[in-house]
């Protein structure tokens, strides 16, 4: 297994590994360490089948059924499908399912169909963003807690005519939200990272609404400044693994044609 860095803040390419063949315990350990070190891994995996994809996810832990993406169905519920033809392109910055009490620790996404050009995925390091804050801002954020709410996405679509009033009402009734510290400590590295995102974070608890809005707007903009990011241009068969405890990501919705991804997420635990 050869690891080559791809970005200054995060991202590395892994070569010399046939993930379709199954991995022994030592290799899984090495891969996990590489994930902790680089936060995003790019692994060539042409022809990866859903069974192999799930097996690889299980090497990192229990795999989940995604809260809202469609999946491959019977026996393959843990393989969710992001199909641009169904209107599913995750084009706003987010950390996966941050509205859950324990968001996934990581996600493995495999390119099934790629557009001829475009549709890159951007990643941002939450610890690089935290480290670059002023000491005054770090002190201000200490102890703050934010509400992450799945219905925020439906609300945004509703406001722009992409969801019906009933869908919006159902999303609110489903009440999928959790409180998380604004600054989270990574359980493996001990690094502090900013944990807010414009997709799910609704407000910071206990602050006046205008102050909460202003702080969140600042943090969300700050988090994705270029020095903290890696931009991935997909090649056929690429498998990306990201540490969801250390990153945010979004897809650039700049493409024409079909983009179809299969994704498997690994369940997260208390403390990350
Ligand atoms: O399609 C991608 O490149 C990223 C997908 C994504 O945002 C997600 O799985 O949450």
Please outline what is shown here.
The chain is of the alpha+beta class.
Key terms:
single chain; 272 residues; alpha+beta; Double-stranded beta-helix; seven-stranded mixed sheet; three-stranded antiparallel sheet; binds 2-oxoglutaric acid
Word description of this protein:
By secondary structure, the chain is α+β, with helices and mostly antiparallel strands. It folds into 2 domains: 2-120 and 231-266, 4-Layer Sandwich (Double-stranded beta-helix); 125-223, Double-stranded beta-helix. The chain is 26% helix and 26% strand. It has 7 helices and 15 strands. The chain has a 7-stranded mixed beta sheet with strand order 1-2-3-13-5-15-4. α5 (151-159) packs antiparallel against α6 (165-174). The radius of gyration is 18 Å and the shape is globular. The model has no long low-confidence stretch (mean pLDDT 95). 2-oxoglutaric acid binds at residues 82, 90, 96, 107, 109, 121, 249, 251, 261, 263.
Task: Map the helices and strands.
Layout: E1 2-5, E2 12-15, H1 25-38, E3 40-44, H2 50-60, E4 80-83, E5 106-113, E6 121-125, H3 126-131, H4 135-141, E7 145-149, H5 151-159, H6 165-174, E8 177-181, E9 183-185, E10 192-194, E11 201-204, H7 209-223, E12 229-232, E13 238-243, E14 247-251, E15 260-266
Parallel strand pairs: 2-3
Antiparallel strand pairs: 1-2, 3-13, 4-15, 5-13, 5-15, 6-12, 6-14, 7-8, 7-11, 9-10
Helix pairs in contact: 5-6
Bound molecules: 2-oxoglutaric acid (AKG).
The number of helical segments is 7
CATH architecture of the largest domain: 4-Layer Sandwich
Number of strands: 15
- Please give the oligomerization state of what you see: single chain
| Range of strand content | 25-35%
* Annotated CATH homologous superfamily of the largest domain: Clavaminate synthase-like
């Amino acid at each position: 297994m050869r690891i080559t860095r791809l970005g200054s803040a995060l991202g590395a390419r892994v070569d010399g590994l046939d993930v379709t063949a199954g991995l022994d315990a030592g290799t899984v350990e090495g891969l996990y360490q590489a994930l902790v070190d680089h936060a995003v891994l790019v692994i060539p995996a042409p022809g990866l089948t859903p069974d192999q994809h799930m097996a690889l996810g299980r090497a990192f832990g229990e795999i989940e059924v995604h809260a809202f993406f469609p999946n491959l169905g019977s026996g393959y519920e843990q393989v969710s499908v992001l199909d641009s033809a169904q209107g599913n392109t995750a084009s706003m910055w987010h950390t996966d399912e941050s509205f859950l009490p324990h968001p996934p620790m990581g996600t493995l996404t495999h390119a099934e169909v790629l557009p001829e050009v475009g549709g890159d995925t951007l990643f941002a390091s939450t610890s690089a963003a935290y480290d670059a804050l002023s000491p005054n801002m770090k002190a201000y954020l200490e102890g703050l807690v934010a509400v992450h709410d799945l219905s925020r996405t439906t609300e945004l679509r509703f406001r722009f005519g992409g969801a019906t009033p009933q869908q919006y009402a159902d999303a609110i009734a489903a009440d999928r939200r959790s409180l998380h510290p604004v600054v989270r400590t990574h359980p493996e590295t001990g690094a502090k990272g900013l944990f807010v995102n414009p997709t799910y974070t609704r407000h910071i608890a206990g602050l006046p609404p205008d102050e909460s809005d202003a702080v969140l707007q600042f943090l969300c903009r700050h988090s994705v400044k270029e020095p903290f990011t890696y931009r991935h241009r997909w090649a056929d068969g690429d498998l990306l693994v990201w540490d969801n405890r250390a990153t945010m990501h979004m897809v650039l919705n700049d493409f024409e044609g079909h983009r179809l991804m299969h994704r498997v997420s690994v369940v997260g635990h208390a403390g990350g």
